[in-house]
Amino acid sequence: MAKIFRRLAIGAALIAALLLLLSGPGTRFGLWEYGTGFLMMRIAFFVGLGAAALALLMLVIPKTRVLGALPLVVALALGLGTAYLPWSGVQKVRSLPFIHDITTDTENPPAFVAVLPLRVDAPNPPEYLGEEVASRQRESYPDIKTVTLEMPADQTFARALEVVEAMGWELVASEPSDGRIEATETTFWFGFKDDVVIRIAGTAGGSRLDVRSKSRVGRSDVGANAERIRKFMQAFQG
């Protein structure tokens, strides 16, 4: 019986790890919907936690520990590690606002134009929801603001385009006359499509730079859009 429970702990830990590893790539390559991927992560959490608990129980009981501690230690570590990743993701979601549209200009956000056909079937509409979203953004991401530059608008545009290409985003539109650049970034793990629009406008002393990033799916972006804008601004000014 002890050997059966030992194999169960090890097998459950391996299954949990496999579910976690497949959840994102399977979604990215279209094998299942993102809801299924999230469900796999949830199952991985409970199975991993159960495997860790069983392994720990067998380690503290001398009669079962003498059968071989190393596999149980591996099952404990693998189970806990697998359970930790979904748990930490949930904690991060809970710590951030449930928004998925971030912009440096909340009063007059840059508008999507060229990416609109790409978002036809997207659950999240391209329109900005106004103060409902803006107030949450200001509270959680006060650093996301318009950048005013002494650089002429044409130079700002050229520099912004260089950064977009350097960051590996998929360029959708580049309109110098409108001061507008649109691009799409695909997230690494789940392959989510997030759209970006960059707006450059001339001013008396140079130009102003605004960026907006919006997810196509999901109520919460887990801070991805704000982080994307931060990285763009850092690369632009770097």
From TrEMBL:
Membrane spanning stretches: 39-60, 67-87
Pfam family, one: DUF1499
InterPro entries: DUF1499
Alphabetical keyword list: Membrane, Transmembrane, Transmembrane helix
Protein name as catalogued: DUF1499 domain-containing protein
Organism encoding this protein: Congregibacter variabilis
